[in-house]
Design a protein that fits this description.
Blueprint (H helix, E strand, L loop, with lengths): L1 H20 L44 E2 L2 H4 L2 E8 L2 E10 L1 H5 L4 E10 L5 E4 L17 E6 L11 E10 L9 E10 L3
Parallel strand pairs: 1-4, 6-8
Antiparallel strand pairs: 2-3, 4-5, 4-7, 5-6, 7-8
Length: 190
Amino acid sequence: MRKIYIVFILLFGIIIVLDASLEVKYPFSNKATSDEIPVQKAGFISSFDTKVDSAEDDLFTQVKPDTLSWKLLGVIKYIKKPDKDYPDGVMFPIINSDLKAKSKKKIVMSGFIIPIDNVSYALSKNVFASCFFCGQAGPETIMGIKFKGATPKLKTDQYVTMEGTFRYNDNDVNDWIYHIENAVIVKGGK
């Protein structure tokens, strides 16, 4: 019985050593000319031109997007301030410095689709049954979505990954705290 354990331990050790010694080769180099931009291709795109004619019209711009996490979005504090519509005051978010630095920058974010009305959606950390609207989470667990181009037809609780421009709101109580604008679904769209 001990021999079997020793064999498995040795086999496991060999796998760890081999895994650590393998070098990962990426499909693009770190040296890009001014006309070429290193971009990793999404799995569903069959052909892709890395030359950018117009940064605004191109899905992949010269800046590699950051990946946001719900954990980072959840690092938030609130302060009660007076508001003209709410005489007793309302809780305003205090956005952390890491998120402020990502404002107006390209980001990638994953989450569940929550319908707001017949034509708009939000991206949520949780499924509809335990989302912000149902009292199971805070307002920091949801992002408003403004799609680039036409709004696609999506299903409730559909899990998607989006790329777009990050924006935060810390002064309008009638708007989402977080937004993803010029959003394009890069995974889970159908």
